[in-house]
Specification:
The protein is mainly alpha-helical. Helices cover 82% and strands 0% of the residues. The chain has a domain of 84 residues. The relative contact order is 0.15. The model has no long low-confidence stretch (mean pLDDT 86).
Amino acid sequence: MAFPWLAVLYGTLLIHTAVEAPFFTPLITTKSRLLRCVILALAVVYILLAWSLHSTKQFFALTALVFALAAIGYSMLFRITHSKKFQQKIFIDGAGALSALGTLLGITTGYGTQLIPVVTVLYMIVTVWMLWMRPYYRE
C-alpha cells in the first residue's frame, strides 16, 4: 500500500534536485576531494532510494541520509564561500533529515499507514512552494 506514495515522494525528491542543481552547481568553486566524495555518496544513496521503494523503513532512513549528506556538502561549501544561500540550504536539508527521521520513528511505532500519505503531500507542497512559488535560491 505504501509503494505508490513512496514512488511519488521519490519523484518529488528527484524533481526538487533536478530543478535546484543548475542553480547551485555554478556556485561550487572548490576542488575538494571530500566534497566530491559527499556528492558521489549522495548519488549512490539516490540510487539506493529507488531500490528501497519496497520498504518504508529503508526508504525513510535513506531519505534522512540524503538530506544529511546534502546538509554536510552545503556546510562544507558555506565554510568556503560564506554564502547565505548555502546557509539556507543547510537549514532546509537539516529540517528534511529531521522530518524523515520523525517519519521513520512514526513508522516503527505503527503509524506508517497514516503518516506516509501525509508526509508525501507535505513534501510536495514544500517543494512547489520553495521552487516555484517563492524560490529561496534565486536573487
